[in-house]
């Protein structure tokens, strides 16, 4: 698959001095662990040894939830555990007015203590390899900052959100002059709590040590925003590579796994089903779940609903809340809908011919999978970059509709509003238009990641740069 095969794929002491090692440092949150895992497989396909570094808990999480990747590709990654001190792992609060996953904060704070052991590991690796390349989550910059004291090491930030949303975070000065649309969402209020902003601030200074940026996005859809970010960095010699969409490699070729979601989809009409999932960081209140259930039922549209509670810092730690559905709901809808509470194969669901829409919180993993599979989105943003991603998907890409305006985020979304959004996406002229647009975009993006495509060329260029 890789076009630069002069590197050995196996880590071998005899040859390692000529080799470049790539060390991946993800943030301990599912969406981030997942994108970093996919990126690891991609870089490894060029024949470079790739090391994936995290706590034992989060490496286990990343591995058990691998979605759509070829096991043979995952087997080539070297997983390296670094102990973190014990951290609290409280349950999410489904009744909180903010949907931000504050329950993950203790795990993230604990990750800051990886700095010293990581520095020691880096030192060791720098003696074994010609060059050590650290690719770290934006929010792990403080952990990898000692890279600057090692002569044959360098670091690159991996951005897990679209450039559009990232550009917004830079500040209004930039927005005023360059990107009219970004002004529509002014404040971070309700997106990110104060405590998290403090955590983000810890990484600001160390981020200045990075040699460049990788984006899980494609220049064909984000050129103006990538340009904006590059302009902000001018003066330094940082480079930006837009290498996305990073999607599982296996989907296009290998057979689908046996799974009850996919078997159920097999029995439905093409593009007839709306897939409903709000990712791994959102816990809906009992009241909201009831409205959602009734809204789906009243829409009379077929649905596949993944109903899960948000992750805890340690997903293996104890009981998880099992949300109640309205009395008799599953029995009443059994001809038209399916509710799933297990981990679902989302990329395969979105790639399935029966799936015609996605009701989503607009986390970037979900957006990018939906965009690449040509599935239009009914956007219901919850926190962080999601309100901006929603704007990007619905107003810039025009491949989605909005379920709920961000201004109404503290209100209960009523069954009638949900019913209306589902019908607009799945059974209206407007829905057909955004679906057509989603399908066209998917064709463009899938081409971009083929050999010679826009994003593939940028990835080739990144790999050529690090093995220079
Ligand atoms: C959330 O509120 C409901 C009542 O509105 C209550 O029954 C439930 O126990 C609360 N859940 C938690 C986890 O606090
Ligand atoms: C995490 O660290 C931030 C920033 O130092 C601090 O404000 C916050 O209280 C800490 N939170 C937890 C849960 O440890």
UniProtKB/TrEMBL annotation:
GO molecular function, one term: zeatin O-beta-D-xylosyltransferase activity
Annotated GO biological process: cytokinin metabolic process; glycoside biosynthetic process
EC number: 2.4.1.-
Broad enzyme group: transferase
SUPFAM superfamilies: UDP-Glycosyltransferase/glycogen phosphorylase
Keywords for the protein's UniProt record, in alphabetical order: Glycosyltransferase, Transferase
Stored InterPro entries: Glyco_transf_N, UDP_glucos_trans, UDP_glycos_trans_CS
Residue intervals of the Glycosyltransferase N-terminal domain: 18-248
Similarity-based family: Belongs to the UDP-glycosyltransferase family.
Protein name according to UniProt: Glycosyltransferase
Species this protein is from: Sesamum indicum (Oriental sesame)
Gene name linked to the record: LOC105162555
